[in-house]
Amino acid sequence: MAEQKEKGKHLFCPYCDEEIMRADLPYCQACGLTIFYCPKCRKPLPRENRVCPHCGAEIRG
After folding, report:
1. Do residues 22 and 4 touch, judged by C-beta distance below 8 A?
2. C-alpha of 20 from chain center
3. What residues are paired with 10 via a beta bridge?
4. Looking at residue 34, what is its pLDDT?
5. What is the sign, positive or negative, of the torsion defined by CA atoms of 5, 2, 19, 21?
6. Is 58 left (phi over 0), alpha (psi -120 to 50) or beta?
7. Taking Cα atoms as reference points, which of 6, 15, 21, 11 lies closest to residue 47?
8. What residues form DSSP beta bridges with 51?
């Protein structure tokens, strides 16, 4: 799907590309899907990723 974008402090859903209004929520308000975050850099990423595209950390399980 769409790549996660970051403009300043604004985060965008990696699934539907809509802005995530609050970064502390575990889901996208627009599409309702649970957002997965990198355990190292804490940026949202698509659930099928096994390596974070932002910091290169390995994503497990």
Report:
1. no
2. 9
3. 7
4. 84
5. negative
6. beta
7. 15
8. 58
